[in-house]
Each structure stands twice: as C-alpha cells, then as structure tokens.
Amino acid sequence: MLRLPRLRYLRPRSIGEASEMAASNPGSAFIAGGTDLVPNLKRRQFDLSVLISLNRLADTRAIDGDAERGLTVGAGATLDEVGRHPALTGPYRALAQACASVSTPQVRFMGTLGGNLLVDPRCNYYNQTYSWRKAVGFCIKKDGDICLVARSSPRCWAVSSSDSAPVAVALNGLVTLQGVNGTRQLAAAELYKDDGIDYTNKRPDEVISSLHVPAADGRTTSAYWKLRRRPSFDFPILGVAVALSWDDGVVRLARGALGAVGSHPVDITAYLTPLNGRRPNDDLIAEVANAADKPARPLDNTDLSHYWRKRMTKVYIERALREAAGFEPLAGRLSAQVAVR
After folding, report:
1. pLDDT tens digits, one per residue of 18-30
2. Cα(192)–Cα(118) distance, rounded to whole angstroms?
3. Mean pLDDT across the chain, nearest whole number?
4. Residue 336 CA, distance from chain mean position
5. pLDDT above 50 for 84
6. pLDDT tens-digit profile of 234-248?
C-alpha cells in the first residue's frame, strides 16, 4: 500500500492567509480537491512538508457572468460544477466540455478548476512508484539527472495534461493570482512555460482565485475534443480547443490551442487565420486542420504511439472546427474509440 508522507496540514480562512502561510513555509503546497496531488505524494514525486488546504475558501467557488459581460469562474469550483453550469453554453461550451471530460465522476466531484489548470505535467517515466523510478535510474524531473525520453536534452519533456488549460488559451482567458505582493492577472497563455518541471509563471505563494473569460463580441462558438485510450477515465493524450467568433455567417476570428502535445498548451491561433473573413466549408476546414497540426510534436512519453498521436492531431482539429462551425461529423470517419470528447 502506498502511504502519504508525514505532513502538516493547514486550513486558512482566506486567500490572504493562505498566501502568507505559503510564504512562511518553504516546501509547502496548496491542496484543493487533491485528486492529482495526493497520488503524486504517495508515489513520492514531491518533497513536501506542509499542505495548505483551500477548501474553506468559499468565495472562490462562484460562477458568475454571461456572454455579454464575460464569465468569471472561481478556481475553487469543482469540475462537475463547471461542466454542468448553465452559463457555460454557447461561447463557453468548450470549457464545460473539457471539465466534464476529466477522469471519472468521483474525481470531477472533488477536483477543482484551479487544480486542473495547474495539473503537474506527466510522463511515463515520472508518474510511477518510487521503486519503479529507482529501478530505471530516476529521471530529470525527480531524483535523476537526464530526461529518459530525450537523453541528450538538458530539459524535461513531461506533457501538459490539463483539459481546461488549452480551452482557457483558446477562449483568451485571464487568470487572477493573489499572493503576498498583491493581486495580478495573466493571460492564460502567459501562465504556462514550456518546461516539464518549472511549468508555470505562478509564484509559490500565489493562489489562483479565478479564470475570467472575456465577453463574446457578437456570436461565438467553441468546442473541445479529447483523445485518450479509455474514454471514461484517462488523461488526455491529445486535446483540441477551438473558438470561432462570427459576423453574419463569416468567421471574424478563429482561436485554438492544443493540449498534451508539449509541456505547455500550444497556441495554434496563427494557423487558423485562413478561416478569418471567410465562410467555412468542408474543404477549407480540412485544409486549415491539415496545416494547424504542425506545432504538435508529441514524444514517446505518454500513452499510445507518438506517431499515431501526431497523425490524429489534424483529425481532431478538423472535428473540433466542424463542431464549432455547426457542421455534421464526417460520415464514416467517426469511430467509437475516438469520438469521445
């Protein structure tokens, strides 16, 4: 049986108090739902001495707003609450789809939006028990000195495995961080760094309090598609988030991001620009999808073949774009194994 290490457990009553606790306790970490953190602690993937609970911060669970005002989702809202909330339809549907696709119902009832935005990058050589990792000589992400995926690389290539992160980027979201030095906002794309170990720009004492998605300027649609071996449970091995802003049937602005193909969410907005100012059709969407997979460079560090995952990237981009554009799925190309979102 895997057991937790000996820890101090603190329960602040406000974000300010939580930040002060983190600043005065080096080697601490925040815990909300704990659905990812606790298993990692049991596998000794983190060296922590203090856990600071965020589950008493009721003011971080609110979901407020609409398409006209913009939507603010508290970081403490559970994934189940986000996935089911009536405000997350239309322009913000992709965020509901992403949160509703995370793991199992039990995990979604416990896990929070803030926790999912900050999911620790994963790797086949890292997300293992201590004895397994010791047997292979450890890796650079924990206790070792080389990346076992790319042995000549000086950096870690663990994969960003958050479902909500690429959606936050595609929807041009803003993340609010509160710490001992005050409150600041970062664009979702600026929150992440392309590094499997030091993967965010959040300071250790900062708490994510909310994700704000801007008002939809005119009609906006969005979609999220997720690839994984077991559709009812697994982390993504590919996530595609797209958002289309419309003007009288013409795409005014297309945005998109990929998850699980790198150590951070990969913005593909530049590759979607051929859609801007045009009425999409089957051929145009297929052409754009065929080009938009170029930034995806999956490695052999997660489930299934990285060659196959690369080939599936353009397929899933096409399917996400078709859904966001209101098109029917392509007949004969929608197998049960890859259709789950």
Report:
1. 999 999 999 999 9
2. 9
3. 95
4. 24
5. yes
6. 999 999 999 999 999
For the entire predicted model, the pTM comes to: 0.95
Q: Give alpha helix (H) positions in the chain.
A: 15-24, 37-42, 79-84, 93-100, 105-110, 113-117, 130-135, 164-170, 188-191, 282-292, 306-324
- With contact defined as beta carbons under 8 Å apart, do 202 and 209 qualify? no
| R_g (Cα) of the chain, nearest Å | 20
DSSP class per residue in 186-226: EEHHHHB-S-SSS-B---TT-EEEEEEE---SSEEEEEEEE
Asked whether the CA dihedral 277, 281, 284, 288 is positive or negative, the reply is positive
Cα–Cα distance measured from residue 94 to residue 267, given in angstroms and rounded to the nearest whole number = 15
DSSP assignment of 241-270, as one string? EEEEEEETTEEEEEEEEEESSSSSPEE-GG
| Residue 226 bridge partners (DSSP) | 239
Distances in Å between the Cα of 173 and the Cα atoms of 186, 190, 312 are 9, 10, 26
| CB 167 within 8 Å of CB 95 | yes
> How far is Cα 37 from Cα 120, in angstroms, rounded to an integer?
8
